[in-house]
Amino acid sequence: MPEIRVTPLGAGQDVGRSCILVSIAGKNVMLDCGMHMGFSDDRRFPDFSYITRSGRLTDFLDCVIISHFHLDHCGALPYFSEMVGYDGPIYMTQPTQAICPILLEDYRKIAVDKKGEANFFTSQMIKDCMKKVVAVHLHQTVQVDDELEIKAYYAGHVLGAAMFQIKVGSESVVYTGDYNMTPDRHLGAAWIDKCRPSLLITESTYATTIRDSKRCRERDFLKKVHETVERGGKVLIPVFALGRAQELCILLETFWERMDLKAPIYFSTGLTEKANHYYKLFIPWTNQKIRKTFVQRNMFEFKHIKAFDRAFADSPGPMVVFATPGMLHAGQSLQIFRKWAGNEKNMVIMPGYCVQGTVGHKILSGQRKLEMEGRQVLEVKMQVEYMSFSAHADAKGIMQLVGQAEPENVLLVHGEAKKMEFLKQKIEQEFRVNCYMPANGETVTLPTSPSIPVGISLGLLKREMAQGLLPDAKKPRLLHGTLIMKDSNFRLVSSEQALKELGLAEHQLRFTCRVHLHDTRKEQEMAMRVYNHLKSVLKDHCVQHLPDGSVTVESILVQAAAHSEDPGTKVLLVSWTYQDEELGSYLTSLLKKGLPQAS
Amino acid sequence: MLYCLSGHPTLPCNVLKFKSTTIMLDCGLDMTSTLNFLPLPLVQSPRLSNLPGWSLKDGNAFLDKELKECSGHVFVDSVPEFCLPETELIDLSTVDVILISNYHCMMALPYITEHTGFTGTVYATEPTVQIGRLLMEELVNFIERVPKAQSASLWKNKDIQRLLPSPLKDAVEVSTWRRCYTMQEVNSALSKIQLVGYSQKIELFGAVQVTPLSSGYALGSSNWIIQSHYEKVSYVSGSSLLTTHPQPMDQASLKNSDVLILTGLTQIPTANPDSMVGEFCSNLALTVRNGGNVLVPCYPSGVIYDLLECLYQYIDSAGLSSIPFYFISPVANSSLEFSQIFAEWLCHNKQTKVYLPEPPFPHAELIQTNKLKHYPSIHGDFSNDFRQPCVVFTGHPSLRFGDVVHFMELWGKSSLNTVIFTEPDFSYLEALAPYQPLAMKCIYCPIDTRLNFIQVSKLLKEVQPLHVVCPEQYTQPPPAQSHRMDLMVDCQPPAMSYRRAEVLALPFKRRYEKIEIMPELADSLVPMEIKPGISLATVSAVLHTKDNKHVLQKRKRASDDIPDCKVLKPLLSGSIPVDQFVQTLEKHGFSDIKVEDTAKGHIVLLQEAETLIQIEEDSTHIICDDDEVLRVRLRDLVLKFLQKF
After folding, report:
1. In chain B, which end has fewer C-beta atoms inside a 10 angstrom radius, N or C?
2. A48-78 residue pLDDT tens
3. pTM of the entire structure?
4. What ipTM was assigned to the predicted interfaces of this complex?
5. Could you state, in order of their start, the residue ranges of all structural domains in chain B?
6. CB–CB of B565 and A509 under 8 A?
7. Regarding the domain delimited by B573-644, which CATH topology (the fold level of the hierarchy) does it fall under?
8. Which ranges does the record mark as transmembrane (chain A) (predicted)?
9. DSSP B35
C-alpha cells in the first residue's frame, strides 16, 4: 500500500528549527532547515542523525526546500549541507536566495564573534551552501526529477516567502511554511488554488488567536510610541532586519509626516539601506498598492528614518530605535535594552513572537529580574509591550487556507502543543478530515490510494462511447479491455488489439445447449413461436427470424429440431460463444420454461 | 483546426481549436497601415498644415479634404488607423482563452476583448502585461494629444481606391482599419489578463494544459506549449538565441511536438544584430563629434535597454561623456523603472546583480550621473534642459505620431544631424516619405534579435516536430531576394503554410487518451506475465466521463433482469491439451470419458451426461443438454486452460 510519511525533526509541537521530512511515493524531501533561537547547544539545530545513521544525506534526500529567509527556517542550512554533508539541490525563491545568506552571516557573526562559539559554520561554508541553491519562481512547475515536481505559491509573511506543493503522480503534499492570510502594509495575502493535496502541512503559530483588526493594532502601536516620545522616553523596537521592520517603518514614517513629529527614528544595523534595496528590486513580491505606485514613489525610501550609531543610545531626549535581532537574544537590540531597561519612562515594544529561552520571551511572560551573562541581574523598569505584528495566519486564516486547498489530511507544525490540540479538533470537526500533530522525531504515516493514469486507445474509448445505449456522454458505461503493462508504460486497449499486438490467436469457446420441449407442432412453426416469444420478452435486443428458419438474438443462434426418438418432443438448439455467455445462459433458462400457448 | 486571422508574420493572430477548446494565439496589430497617413505634428507645423489637396487626373477634387500631397506622395489626412486581425472568419465570442507571447503581439487586444463579445481569459507573463500596458499607453497618448477631428473614409471605397496612386492603391484590408482605442478600453482589456510564470502548467477545462516557456526575445516573452496527454502543439513566436537581457530561450521543452506553429522570425534575415549595434554606436559618435544631433526613433521598451547598455560601455571610451542623452516618452520613466524589478525574467548575468543588491540594468547609473535624462514629452521640463548636440530616443518608429515628428521637422534640414533607424517594424524609406527632401543623414541599422533561418533550421532539427506550420512568407525567399533559397524555412516534411483568412486542418495522429484507473479497481486487477517484461490484465469496469476527464471504476454487480448484451466477456487465447483436460475432468468426478481423434483435433465424449466437447487448436465447442450446472462446471474447467484478454 503506498503511503506518505512525515517526520518533523524540528517544529513538531514547537516553534523553532523548522525541519520536516516527507516521504511521498518513494521520494524524500526535507522541508526547511532552521535553527532554534532558544538553545545554544546541540538542540539549536535539527537532529540530522535521524537520517545519517542509515546513510548519507545526499543519498537519502531527493531535495531540500526552504520556505523563507527567517533563521528558524534556514539557519541550519550551512551546517546541514557543509558540515553534515549534503550535495543535492536546495530550492527557494529568488528573494529568499538573496537575503538568506546575509542573515546567515549575521547569525554566524553573533554566534562566533560575540558569543565565541567554536565549531560553527564559516562564511565560506555559507557561500558554498548557497551554490547548491536553485531559484524557484512563483507557480513555476519545477521538475526535480522525472517524477517529483514542486511548485511555489505566494505566502505573504516576509518578502519571498512561499508555500510549496510537492507532487508525485496524483499524490501531493502542500507545506505552507509561515504565511499570512491578510495583506499588510508591504506584502499581499497568501493564496493557493483548490489543489486538493493528499496532505496539507500548515504552521499553527496563532492556532487559538483571532486577531482584532489590523488597523486597531496599528493605531494602538502608534499611540504607545507617540505617548512615550511625548513624555521624553525612548522606544526600543527589536526587529529582524527584513520583514516586519519595513512594515513598521512605513507606518512610523507616514505617522511622523502627518503629525510633523521631530523626535528621531533610527534603524540599527547597516543592513537598512541594503534591505530597502532588496525590497525595491523585488517589488513584484510586495502588495498590489506598492507595486502600482512604485514608479511614482518608492515606499522603501524613508525620509525620517536614519542610520543608528551606538553612541546615540546614550544621547538624552526621546527617540525611537529599531534594533536587531527581534527576540532580544543577542546583538544590538539586547545591548540597547540593557541600557534603557532601568528607566520607567522608556518602552520596549516586542512586535513579534519570541521563542522560549530568549530575553524577549522572559520579559513578555512578566519576568522583571533577568539574570544576564556573568551572573549580573538586570532589573527591568521600562514598560514592556507586546504587539502582534507577526505576519502569521491566525486561527481564522488557517481555517481559510484549509478551505481553499481542500486537503485530504492536515498536519500541524510550528506551534505549541496545547494550542495545536484545539485547532486540530476544530479542523477535524469542520472539514471532516484527519488532523495530525506529531512531536519531533515522531512519524505520521498516511496510507494513500492513488489512481493510476493509463493511456486508453482512442478506438476503444470511442467504441465504448458509441455503444452507450443513451447518447448522453455523461452516463457511466461499461468498458471492457486489456491493460498492457510494459515497463512503466500502461496502455488500455481492446482485447482484439491486445491479441494482435502480442501475436496471439483467439480461441473461440462455443456452447450449444439442447432444450427439450414437449410439442407436436412442426419445427418451422416452433421456430416462429420461439421468435414471437423472444421478440416480446427481449424488447431491447435485436431478435431476427432468418430465412433458413433459425432465430437469432444478437449473435446467439436458436434452431428448432425434431427429437430423434420422440416425435412429441422438439429440441431447441441454443448456441452462443463465451463472449455472449450471460445472454446465452439467460436464453436457455428462458426457453426451458416453455413457450406461451398461442392465444 | 487553425484559423489564421493575420497575414503579418511577426504580428500573428491565430485561433487554434484543440480538443474542444478555442485558443487564440496572440493578437498582433499591424501598424504599417499608419505609413499611409500624414504625420501628427506636436507643434503647429506650417509645412504640414498647408499641404495641397490631391485631385484625380481628370481634375476631380472631391477627395482633397481626405488626401494631401506631400513630398511627391499622397497621404491620408486623418487620425491614423491600424489594420486589425480578421474578425469575421470565426465567431470571436467563442474564444475561450487568449495566449500572449510578448508585448509586441498584444497590441490588438482591446479590439478583440472589448468589441467581439469575448468573455474568456487572457494569459500573459507579468512583464508582458506591464510593458504591453506602457506601449498601449504611449500609443493612446501620442494619438490623443494631437486631436484631429477628421476621419477619412471616402478613399476606402473600393472603386475609388483603385484610382489612387501607389502605395494607397495597394493598401490591403482597408475595410478593417480602425482608429486607436481609448485608455478605458486598454484598462478593461488588461483587467482580463491572468498572470502566469514560465513553466507554469495551466489547466483549461480539464482537457488541455498550456505552459509558457521563455523565448529569449524580450522581458517576459514566451512560447507556448498547448497539450493534452497525447498531443502536443508548440507555438513559437518571437524567439531569440542571442544573449541580450532576457532569460534564454527554453528549447528543450519544445521537443516531441506533433505540430509546431512558427511565427515571429527576424524581419531582417540578412543583418547581424551585433554588427548593427556596432554601426549604431559609430554613426552616433561620428555625428555628435561633428556637432550634429542624433535621433533614434524607437519603442519605449526592448532594444532600447540594450542600446543604453552599449552606450554605457561606449560613451567614455568614445569621448561622449558630456553629450546629453534624452529619452522622451510618456512612459519613459515607467519603462526604465519596470526594467529594474523583473529580475527573475532576466538573463543569468543580470539576475545575479540583484543578489548584491544592485539594479540589473546600468541605465540606473546613467540616470544617476545625469548622462541619461527622461521626459514625458518635449513640453515642460525638457524645453528648459534641452542642450545640443544631443542624442534623443523617442517614438514612434513609424514617424507618424509622437515626439519624433517634432524632431524630424526640427533637425531634418541640417546635414549635420542623423536619424538612425533601429526598429525593424517599418520600412525606413516609407517612414521618411512625408519628410522628403531631407538634408539630415539617414542610417538604417535594424536590430532584430529574433531567429534567423539558419537558427530556425537548427532549432527544428533539434526539437523535431512532426509537422511545422508557418506564415506563407517563410516558405519562399523574400520577394526582393528571390535567389536566396537559404532565406526560407527548410524542414521535412515541408512546412504547411497559411495566409490571412485561411483555415488549416492540423494533422494529428492521435491514438491514445488518458484515463484514470481508480485504486479500488486497480487492486482487483490480476496481471499476468505473457512475455518477459510484458504483463496483461483484463479490465471490465465502469467508465465515467466528466469535465473531459475519463475515470474507470470497479463495477458493481448489475441486478438487471435481462442481462445487458453490452457486457462483454473477455476474448480467450491459448489451446487445450486433451490429455491434461481429460485428467482434469476425471479429477472433478467425471467418468466414462471417451476421446476420439478428428481431422483437426479431438472430441471428448461424456457419455453419461450426453455431452460432447470438440477441441481444436483455436476453438472449443461444448454441446450439452440444458443442464446449466453441468455446463458451467465444464466451462470453468475449459477456461482454466485459456488466457483471458
Report:
1. N
2. 999 988 889 999 999 999 999 999 999 999 9
3. 0.85
4. 0.85
5. 2-30+86-150+183-269+451-504, 273-444, 512-526+542-557, 573-644
6. no
7. TATA-Binding Protein (3.30.310)
8. none
9. G
